[in-house]
Amino acid sequence: MPFFTxxxxxxxxxxxxxxxxxxxAAHAENLTISAMNxxxxxxxxxxxxxxxxxxxxxxxxxxxxAIEKALRSAKIDGRPxxxxxxxxxxxxxxxxxxxxxxxxxxxxxxxxxxxxxxxANDQCIKSKEIKILCTNKVMSLTSAIRLTTTDDGSIIYSSxxxxxxxxxxxxxxxxxxxTESQIQxxxxxxxxxxxxxxxxxxxxxxxxxxxxxxxxxxxxxxAFKAAVKLSRSNQTASCAAFNDLYVAAPEARSVIxxxxxCAERAGDFDRAIELFTKGIGRYSLSNSxxxxxxxxxxxxxxxxxxxxxxxxx
Length: 313
Description:
The structure is a single chain. The chain folds into two domains: 14-37 and 203-312, Serine Threonine Protein Phosphatase 5, Tetratricopeptide repeat (Alpha Horseshoe), CATH 1.25.40; 42-199, Double Stranded RNA Binding Domain, CATH 3.30.160.150. It is flat, with a radius of gyration of 28 Å. It has helices at 14-20, 42-45, 60-72, 179-198, 221-230, 235-248, 253-266, 269-279, 289-312, and strands at residues 30-37, 49-52, 75-76, 79-80, 83-85, 93-118, 124-149, 155-169, 201-208. A hairpin with a 5-residue loop joins strand 6 (93-118) and strand 7. Helices cover 37% and strands 30% of the residues. The protein is built from nine helices and nine strands. Strands 5-2-6-7-8 form a five-stranded mixed sheet. The chain has a two-stranded antiparallel sheet with strand order 1-9.
């Protein structure tokens, strides 16, 4: 689904699709759909250029680096969303803040079963419960983050990012996590949260095609099956075939459902909602038309909100 330009759709004749499926690569029979979520803070999303200052606090530098990296990764249609600068005089806004990670240790006893008697074949015939001493490390991140304008210093965005993780170290269990890795995980999570607050996010999701042919006129059965298989190699052509099938068999429930997914993929939310609504009550599926319609309603709402944020800049 393009966001700044919309390409023309190409239609493929039903008969041509049947011959095309023989060369497809093996993938799941689903369609990949592009969508967007808006930034949580619309005022921050309207900023074009940003400088990230080095944060205060013992762990401020690490968090500021992580936030800068996260904001640099914010892209829409492959283009950076923010212009990241190293000079506040060239920036519309500056991110500043502070961060601290504390680590606390506690003794913790855990129960274990210990064999105290073996038989002649070294099989345990008697055991007892014992307690072993472990160490519970609790790591906590506290931070305060602000985005302020460079012209008058007004606050555009303010947030406190906190997190807590723990690791239990026992002498009889090999540790798979380290204190350092958990601390870095909390810092990275906080940075990603800031990125979601400040910029829209473009992402893909998959929706499974309906492959049942019940109720489809028999003369279209092969074309339907071919259109499903074509989704493995050429989803645009697959959707063109389903749209042609919908013209030919507009009351076939699986054709309605797949044409609706294709409309969703093309960004034609109104048509997708109309088709999913048409399919409600015709059959019961694990991914029912009702759930799919409600999904498209959410996707449309988020998409329009994101586009509005982008157009303000």
